[in-house]
Amino acid sequence: MEKTDLSDIFAHNLFPQEKEKSGTEFFWWAYDDGTEAGAAIDVKSKKEICSKIFKNKEERIKFQQTIKAKNKKKFEFEKNKLMLKSGLPQFDLRANGIILKWQKAEIAKNGREHLFRMLEACGQDFKARAEVIKLISSLLSAYYFGYLTFNNIFSLAQPLKILCAPILACNVRDGAAETLESMVASVAVDTTEPFYGEMEYGKLFYNQPNCLPQNLKDRHTIDCAYIRLGKSKKKCFETLYPAQYRDTSAFINARFFAGNDLFQFQQRNPWASLVFYGISDSRLVVEPIRLDGKIFAKFVNGETWDVEAVHKLILYFVNWLHKNFKKGKLFPRLKAKLIFYDRLIEKHNRRRGSAKIRGLHKAWMEMQLLAVKDFSDFGTEFGCWTAEEGEQLTAEWTNLLLPDCCPYPQSAVMPEVHRVTIFPEHDCVTLFEKTLEAILNDKMNWKHFIYVPPKTDFLTEKAGAEIWGYIRDYQDRKAHQSIVTLQIREEIMRRLAKNFCPAECDWYDVIKYLRKKDLNYLHQSKTVRMPGIGEEEKTLILKVSQLDFLSDEAKSIFDAYICV
């Protein structure tokens, strides 16, 4: 058998060499609101000829035809439709640095501890916890909304003009922005296709942070949240395209961005929960869920939670959802759950005096209730809490969203999360007196109270322990007399109440309502110049002679102090 000469084969072009590509490639992709984006690229030089955002498909097709008509030479014109790889199906636990199975026990333990810290960071009373759960459940519901809509599981009793994931708004309050941003950073997960370090020609790369702006100089959302088209293994084209948030959430400080920019951002990202801080109603596409900025402003930096610990727990929750959705495990139960929550909301709406939940807000509430239920089930499966504790948490979170809509399970006992509901407006006097009595009845606490003799001052650095309050004369100008008072700064009283108050409640409200009462032992003055400080502070000025609710032992200690 004769040997075949390979040179003859190539000489006769039996395997012709591939021609060098030339012409124009047009890459384009569609957003969830129907707008599209595209870029024309010169194939040979790998340079961007032009790029544009289109209002709709028709405008994009017309633009393609214009580009092709201007091409006088017979260049090839290729159209490449790209899919935006953003959303729960793209989620990859490994891309978020979670790979080792042995981390699970530690993440479950730390995640539980810091999750509860976050849920109670703005107060342990019913109102404060309800406000935080409203926010967290809205963020978690974003992982469901698009999935349920696209799979026709989510059915509405009445058609809506706009269907989107929850949009939340908070007025500008000192300190509230930092708290909201930390909570969103704890719960929001990146659901874009992971980037492993090498650019590829014609591939999209995503930069979609969950808190905007990223830089104080950013004046448009596209400056910090954008998509870029790959140019080579080393770089991307310089053009920035709008981001596409799906199945996740984002915090936006609206004061940095123009109104039209924010309006388009909401329209483009209907399957993401968006939390706006300082946005006007005219910039919102729908009536939002209103957050009470005063509650979130109460957050104290010294009593924070570990954002990363909570975030890792949420990553595993999203991974749990991703796997269950992929396997179809949650699919059969979702409709039944939504029907149940629909009836629960209707039961709430029929209750006299309740705030009615209708339309889009009803759809949001169904998603919020579904989210807290599944998160509780996940926590049980993941090892954060027992099955009984999970039932208790589900009942508590459900009642925080819809007060008194379902009973607490009798078998579950969780003192660390089960709170006694106290209404400071009605119980402020009892709460204050019981708390002060608990403080002063313990002899060990008296080292924290200093007696300041008349016409003298006291230097704080001479105290042997932290000072909680002062026993000193106070000149009552209206009564034209000097009275002995116990003076405790409001800030100190709120801190002490966390350890000595018999019930968990909001002590900002306790003190506010207490001042409205006509109490013989509470002086009407709200501020006093504190010893050793030199500046007036908000202070509770208590007339010692009128503190009749104290025990005889505590009264005798007062007498001993004054007689020294």
Describe this structure in words.
This protein starts with 5 loop residues before the first helix and ends with a helix. The chain is 39% helix and 16% strand. The chain has 564 residues and is of the alpha/beta class. 35% of the residues are buried. The chain contains 16 helices and 17 strands. It has a five-stranded parallel β-sheet, covered by helices on one side. It has a five-stranded mixed β-sheet with strand order 13-14-15-17-16. Helix 3 crosses helix 9, helix 5 packs across helix 9 and helix 13 crosses helix 15. Helix 7 links the parallel strand 10 and strand 11.
Summarize the structure.
The chain is 39% helix and 16% strand.
Structural class call reads alpha/beta
Q: Which bin fits the share of residues in helices? A: 25-40%
Strand content: 15-25%
Mean pLDDT: 82
Radius of gyration: 31 Å
The neighbouring-strand order within the major sheet is 7-10-11-5-12
Could you tell me the number of beta strands? 17
The main pleated sheet reads as: 5 strands, parallel
Can you give keywords for this protein?
elongated, 16% strand, 564 residues, alpha/beta, five-stranded mixed sheet
Chart the SSEs and their pairings:
Blueprint: H1 6-11, E1 23-30, E2 36-42, E3 47-54, H2 57-70, E4 76-81, H3 103-119, H4 126-150, E5 167-170, H5 176-187, E6 204-207, E7 211-212, H6 221-224, E8 226-229, E9 241-242, E10 248-253, H7 259-268, E11 272-277, E12 289-291, H8 293-296, H9 307-327, H10 331-350, H11 359-382, H12 387-401, H13 424-440, E13 449-452, E14 469-476, E15 481-489, H14 490-500, H15 507-516, E16 527-529, E17 536-543, H16 552-563
Parallel strand pairs: 1-4, 5-11, 5-12, 7-10, 10-11, 13-14
Antiparallel strand pairs: 1-2, 2-3, 6-8, 8-9, 14-15, 15-17, 16-17
